[in-house]
Amino acid sequence: GQAMADAGVELKGCDATREILPQATAASDEDYRTEYTDLILNIRIVDGIDQAAAHIQEYGSDHTEAIVSQDWDTVHRFIRMVDSSTVVANASTRFADGGELGLGAEIGISTTKLHAFGPMGLEELTSQKFVVYGSGQVRE
Q: pTM of the full predicted structure?
């Protein structure tokens, strides 16, 4: 927690988050709905996978979701449960990047599940889900 604050990351979270990370400020509903393009991290500590699912249903982007957990059964259930383009376990969501995922230079980002218009072949009917496992890695 302190390393993030020292690196200039702004932390926002629920009451439980602020008990663990005193440097965090209170997160509003609007904060949880915002996708930041800056070093701002919203954190919600939940009581279990069902509460995590409810939070993602309410605030998720369908683009990138993350879990931090030492329970790998919970991590694997989360990965199967979340229908997002990229699911990150115990690492930074900043790894959700074409170059980081081995796709080469990123030339665009699709924000919908079905991106093709007009005649479609097999390529247009295929979507991918990326899974990133970590043990606390960040991307600088």
A: 0.75
